[in-house]
Amino acid sequence: MKLAFLVFFLATLLAAVLGQTGEFYPCKADVFSARAVLLHQEPKVNVQCGVANQMSSRIVAGSVVTPNEFPWMAFLRITFWSGDSAMCGGTVIDGRWILTAAHCTFGAVSITVILGAHDITLSSSDANRQEFTSHKWIVHPSWSYGDVENDIAIIELPFPATFSEYVRPACLPYVDDPNQLGNPVTLLGWGNYSSIPDSGFSTYLRKTLTTVISSAGTTGQCQQQSGVGSFSGDKIICSDGSQGRRFCYGDDGGPMNFYDSYWGTYSVVGIAWIGDKSSDCQNSRLPNIYTRVSYYVNWIYNNTDIVPTPRPVTTTTTTTTTTTTTTTRPTTTTRPTTTTPTTTPTTTPTTTTTTPTPTSYPSGFDCKGKPNGVYPNPWDDCSRTFFYCSNEYVYEYVCPDAGTVFNEVLCECDFTENVAGCWDEHQRTEEFTCYMI
Ligand SMILES: *[C@@H]1O[C@H](CO)[C@@H](O)[C@H](O)[C@H]1NC(C)=O
Ligand SMILES: *[C@@H]1O[C@H](CO)[C@@H](O)[C@H](O)[C@H]1NC(C)=O
């Protein structure tokens, strides 16, 4: 492949020189700037995602949470050109990135992100807040205002958040998560919570416990009950909105959290769609419509360096044990005792399930015991992200910024032989245009 490209490249160059066809554009200078990120220094490697703080003992629909119970919860104040502002929720998924809904960023000129907050009033005495003003966010390219599907965006913080007991990331779901039908989930937000008209937003962060309902295909229970038209259940996760268990105006962009009891961690499985403005929001019994994050994990990865977490492998071993039971016949007192043993073999299957221990929760590539060199991304055969091990330290390279492996002649990342499947035909034409024909 590479040789074929080189031949093609030289032919193109020759053709260009001869003035017969095409033009040759030199590589952009910035692609030569090396960018090696020492993953060990990135906060995400050292912080276990999805660890909640002490839970409130009262678990009632729509209750105020224990302060900082969900340390990944972000408060967003969106500022528009007009000077008006709106509020949304968001989720810390990394030291640098906040997950929210695309519609929350629509028309915004800047977004203030407040982390570690519980009481969002200006006079709040929350001591552990961290505040950022961002002008940079990425909206899903397939989303348009009003769309139900693809309502997802990521906000980049101008500098990394400091992780603490009060500010920590949530886990992202696995790419291959099941539909989670019937799973209990927790919705979070500072939005309208009362059915009294104009009663306003909540001062304190509130949570609502609900259950995932079906959004299968394009005509599931959620699609039928919500009345917002057809949408794909692969891209949307819905939960039951009866008994006041609803997200409302102001909760937009906030997380639907799922607790994985094996790992003891929460992942953000949904992002709140447009919250209902009506004062009847709580009583409408309409489903809660959330963007299904598992569908977008690879999109997040494409736009950040948050590597999707591979699902831990569970191995099941079945061993068959044969036990010999000896039964002795009853003896008669009148005759001399004769004992005839009868042997009955019994087969007992024992199933042992082994799952890796949560202490080794996968958060990145491990260079322990590996010789120095470049390694393919084990979770993505044809990734632009790969790893370099140097004295057991892991560095991450993202092409085309990877300085030391960037080949100036080919004008592309020159992956070494051991980077499996890393050919990038589409990358060359779509994202990394060094030449044009
Ligand atoms: C929701 O809160 C906002 C902000 O306080 C308020 O303007 C709006 O009237 C509230 N909506 C309802 C239905 O109470
Ligand atoms: C990620 O980027 C690659 C390369 O540009 C593209 O082919 C792929 O469709 C993207 N995936 C997602 C989920 O955005």
UniProtKB/TrEMBL annotation:
UniProt keywords, alphabetically: Disulfide bond, Signal
Coiled-coil region(s): none
Spans annotated as Disordered: 311-359
Domain Peptidase S1 span(s) in chain numbering: 59-305
InterPro entries xrefs: Chitin-bd_dom, Chitin-bd_dom_sf, Peptidase_S1_PA, Peptidase_S1_PA_chymotrypsin, Peptidase_S1A, Trypsin_dom, TRYPSIN_HIS
Positions of the Chitin-binding type-2 domain: 364-424
Biased composition (Low complexity): 312-358
Pfam assignment, any one: CBM_14
Signal sequence range: 1-19
Domain of life: Eukaryota
Gene3D superfamilies, A to Z: Chitin binding domain, Trypsin-like serine proteases
This protein's record includes keyword DNA repair: no
Protein name per UniProt: Clip-domain serine protease
